[in-house]
Amino acid sequence: MPARQPSKPRTRRQTPETRPYHHGDLRRVLIDAALQLAAEGAEVSVREAARRAAVSPGAPFRHFPNRDALMAAVAGEAQRRFRAEIEVALDQAPATDPLGRFRAFGLAYLRWAMSNPAHFEIISTGRYFAHGSSAELTRDNAELIALTERMLADAAEQGLLRSADPKRIQIAGRALVYGFARMNLDGHFPRWGVGEGETERMAEGVIDLFIAGIAKP
User: Positions of the region Disordered (predicted)?
Assistant: First the structure.
């Protein structure tokens, strides 16, 4: 009678719950997955980001305990990229020309918002998480507001402004660029006869019209 062959150990089939992830930077992958979901207009959750990243549902929670934490990370990255765009634009604007710098800031805002609609949506609306819950975003927004305040204060000191109320100008400028960016994101421009390739030129024209309106002749 032939000797009985030893049975092979049974290999446990890996399910999505047991499959190990092989990403070198899981945090980075989850942020990218959440951004992709937001760009598609899909519901964002930690578990859905894990599914998109092809990792076990429990793996992300060591980095992000909940959706707010995940979206705060996405928003933080968006804000850093936005700041980098602003800094490049201001580096190219003369330090002695506050209205020129104010214009450069506004154009950088619009160019970034139009080129990064998903990031803009995340950092400009409360749809995904409460912005006030992120100390980083709160601090960063305060710094940007202070930056525009200094530009307008310098312009006022140089006698360049029509109005003696820089705060009103600051809020009007913010409303202008935010409204323009929202119109672009929501697809309003075609009904106004502005083609896809014309939005940046229109943005420049709108900013220049605003600057002309606040500057002394």
Answer: 1-23
